[in-house]
Amino acid sequence: MMSEKNIVLTGFMGSGKSMTSNKLGEICRRPVVSTDALIEEREGKSISDIFSEAGESYFRQVEKAVVQEVSAQQGFIIDCGGGVVLDAENLMHLKKSGVVFYLSASPECIFENVRHRKHRPLLDVTDPLAKIAELLSQRQPYYQQADVIIDADFKSIDQIVQAVLKEFSNE
Ligand code: S3P
Predict the structure, then answer these.
(1) Which residue of 8, 117, 160, 164 has the fewest C-beta atoms within 10 A of its own C-beta?
(2) pLDDT at 46
(3) For residue 118, what pLDDT is reported?
(4) What is the pTM of this model?
(5) Minimal CA–CA distance to 97: which of 1, 7, 166?
(6) What's the pLDDT score for residue 86?
(7) Residue 1 has pLDDT above 60, yes or no
(8) Whose C-alpha lies nearest to ligand 1, atom 2?
(9) Average pLDDT value for residue range 2-22
(10) How close is the Cα of 83 to the center of ligand 1, in Å?
(11) Is the pLDDT assigned to residue 121 strictly greater than 90?
(12) 36, 117, 142: residue to mutate for ligand 1 pocket, most atoms within 8 A of CB
């Protein structure tokens, strides 16, 4: 029997969290929730507009409220925004009701993935690769606190999904 605990995906922007979450949702027949999508829904604006109009610290407040709410439930796949685990209380809540996975990827892999995808205000700079490398090294100590680290570097979504399921079945 699969644990009722949430499957929580964390990691840097562009590490494959959203695609992995959706695939896991299909395979496990579990609802998928994305903290970013819940924030956008609640605020009625895009993440970019929240950052530019209200600022990052406001965004983090809303994110924290959303994390508390989703952590109060079980049986979900939770797709976390890349900055969620920078807050120790967020990580604590997520770990209580779920298994927290860190999808670990190199700056080069992340850069490839974010190049043509959705807009990320934090990477809206002249040298996004350098910015990714800088932020990733600052955040590494936080990401490393996950329950399970998954090597997602240049891996296919199917490979990541299989690795998550294998670890989750041991819980
Ligand atoms: C952020 C990651 C984004 C989004 C926001 C801030 C971050 O989510 O929450 O732009 O601080 O790493 P994704 O990881 O889903 O892109």
Answers:
(1) 117
(2) 95
(3) 67
(4) 0.96
(5) 7
(6) 97
(7) no
(8) 82
(9) 94
(10) 6
(11) no
(12) 36
Helix (H) or strand (E) holding 79: strand 77-79
Residue 66 structure tokens = 């959303």
Is 124's pLDDT higher than 60?
Answer: yes
Q: Give me the residue label for tokens 């850069």.
A: 111
Q: Is residue 3 pLDDT above 80, yes or no?
A: no
Hey, what amino acid is at 126?
T
As given in the structure block, the two tokens for residue 17 are 């969290």
DSSP codes, 95-145: HHHEEEEEEE--HHHHHHHHHTSS--GGG-SS-HHHHHHHHHHHHHHHHTT
Side-chain half-sphere exposure of 87, counting CA atoms within 13 A: 20
The confidence score (pLDDT) of residue 140 equals 97
Separation between Cα atoms, residue 107 and residue 133, nearest integer Å? 5
pLDDT band of 30, cuts 50, 70, 90: very high
- Ligand 1 and 83: CB distance under 6 A: yes
Per DSSP, the three-state class of 32 is strand
Which residue is associated with the tokens 């959303």? 66
Residue 164, SS3 per DSSP? helix
- Tokens 């298994």 identify what position? 99
Identity of residue 76: F
Task: For residue 30, give every residue at least 6 positions away whose Cβ sits within 8 Å of its Cβ, in sequence order, or none.
Answer: 7, 24, 75, 76, 77
